[in-house]
Design brief:
Distance between the termini: 51 Å
Number of helices: 2
Helix content: 25-40%
Order of helices and strands: HH
Structural class: mainly alpha
Radius of gyration: 24 Å
């Protein structure tokens, strides 16, 4: 069996994937059980109880760079060496 979806029940296969709420700059996101105000000891700029943005462009770009570096490193290691015989 090559299709992992074949293992799931039909009602499970028809479920839609979760999509997070739209992200608009300037709005703060709180979880349902979080307080909307800061603790007196919280001296951070954004507040310790704030969620990070869901698609951080700078992080994604850096991870992509690291991935490319890793792939190239592995590619160079697997290339056969040319052996020259005299």
């Amino acid at each position: 069996m090559n299709d992992p979806l074949a293992l799931a029940r039909p009602e499970i296969r028809t479920l839609a994937a979760y999509e997070h709420a739209s992200w608009e700059n300037g709005f703060e996101r709180l979880h349902a059980n979080e307080l909307p105000w800061r603790a007196a000891t919280d001296g951070t700029v954004a507040g310790l109880n704030r969620y990070p943005e869901p698609h951080p462009a700078a992080l994604a770009a850096r991870l992509a760079d690291l991935y490319v570096d890793l792939v190239m490193f592995l590619y160079r290691r697997k290339r056969p060496h040319k052996h020259y015989s005299k």
